[in-house]
Each structure stands twice: as C-alpha cells, then as structure tokens.
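**Paired protein data**
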Amino acid sequence: MAAVDFDLRFTYVLAGWEGTARDALVLRDALERENGIRVPQDKFYLVDAGHGAKPGFLSPFHGVRCHLNERGSNSVQNEKELFNFRHSSLHITVERAFGALKRRFKILDDATPFFPFPTQVDIVLACCIIHNWVIQDGGDEFITEDSNLPSYNHATTYVGKANEHAKMVNFRQGIADQMWADRQNININ
C-alpha cells in the first residue's frame, strides 16, 4: 500500500503484504501500526472503492460509472458520476507515480523474485526513497506528463466505525452535490 502526493512522491509505503490481500485489511494494518499512515488535519486521501468509506479516506461511489466525459458523448448524468469521474481523474496521479517507479527500477517490475521475502520488502522501500530523492532533486525522465476532515483515531468501537462511515458517506455526497450544482450553474451561464 502506498500514499502519493500530487508531486508523485511516496508519502507512505507499507510493503510486505501479498498482492491478493484485501485493500481494507491492508489499510487497517497501516492505521494500527505505531508509525503507520496518519491523515493530516483537515485533509483526506483518495482511495479505491475497496477501502470503503472511512474518516480521512475518500472512496468513489460503489457501482457508479467513472470512465466518462464531462461533456459530449458518454457524458456524466448525475452528481455521483461526476464525483467518480473527477475522483478517477485525480487517481491517475497514483498510477503515474507507480509507472515512474517501475520504469526507473526494473527490479520492481520483474515477476520472478530472486531475493528472500524480507529483502524484497527492503528493495521496495529503498526504491521509493530513491524515487522521492530524484523527484526532489529536479527533473525526472521517468515521469510521463498527463494529456475538510480532522485527524481521526481509527481504533474505535463498531458503533463508532458505523458513525464514522456514515459521516464519510455524507461528506462524499456533499462534495458530489456541490460539484453537480457548480456544473449545472456553468451550463446555465
């Protein structure tokens, strides 16, 4: 699991889970670790639908189209489709970061592991650190160009988690409603 900022830097990496592990399980592990992922005050992370709605983690609407156009053919029809379309557009940042990482370090793209598992974990972490250093140092030939929540304690009761889930669902719906209203106002003018 990894968190990426809009400069394509890895801000958090949790290596060592099998690729078949459920997203929500890996996220829970990252949240419960002593030095695990933390959501900055008044911020949230965009996540895949597999993570679900959790405080500080904004997922797309489940079962709603996202690969659309804002205008023209195959255009968005409602606020949820618009939200998912824009969520998907921002999520491409993660794909670009991983693409640059794999192009830079071919060892990460090799399906045949040559090293013991603990060494593989260390290699992933080292590659992410070097990737960040290269980006911070300046230009990067491996990066291709593309054509308000508080910090939460995630160790809560089941009822608390249900309430937190409802708050994130309502928060996401509020964002979607506002985007749709803004879009409708632009179409009127």
Remarks:
- Confidence is low (pLDDT under 50) at residues 147-159.
- Residues 96 and 143 are 7 Å apart (CA to CA).
- The longest helix spans residues 158-188.
